[in-house]
Amino acid sequence: MTDDDDETLDLDALLQEADRAKNRGELDAALEGYKRALMVCTDDDELERASIYANVGEVKRLQGKGREAELNFEKALKLMPGFKPALVAMVELAFQHSGIRSLEFT
Question: For 11-58, how does the pLDDT look when each residue is reduced to its tens digit (9 = 90+)?
């Protein structure tokens, strides 16, 4: 097993724990886990980093911190333009803050 394998296992473990914390509603613990995962993730793994930033954005949204959520979704999109989870989250965030209850397409 190489050091890269150790880092991947550590990253996977950090992400799994952060996801579990988010699912339990332990948002501060989830946020800490995602931040730690960003420190372990390599700069060249743009997809993984974009996914982590999108998760941070989701936690911030759940905490009621819309602007911080938006900034993290934007970081994800800067790394991976067109990254669907971040795009969908940005639309949902904008929709949530617009006061519109529903959209109808005709």
Answer: 999 999 999 999 999 999 999 999 999 999 998 999 999 999 999 999
CA–CA gap between residue 34 and residue 15 (Å, rounded): 6
Give the integer Cα–Cα distance in Å for 10 and 30: 15
Sign of the dihedral defined by the CA atoms of residues 76, 81, 86, 91, in that order = positive
Residues 6+ apart with CB under 8 A from 95: 103
3-state class (DSSP) for residue 18 = helix
Helix (H, G, I), strand (E, B) or coil at 101: coil
Distance of CA 61 to the CA centre of its chain: 10
- Determine the Cα–Cα distance for residues 51 and 73; give it in Å rounded to an integer: 9
Please answer whether residues 89 and 73 qualify as being in contact, where contact means their C-beta atoms are separated by less than 8 angstroms: yes
CATH number listed for the domain at residues 3-98:
1.25.40.10
Task: Enter the tokens of residue 21.
Answer: 């914390």
Domain boundaries, the chain: 3-98
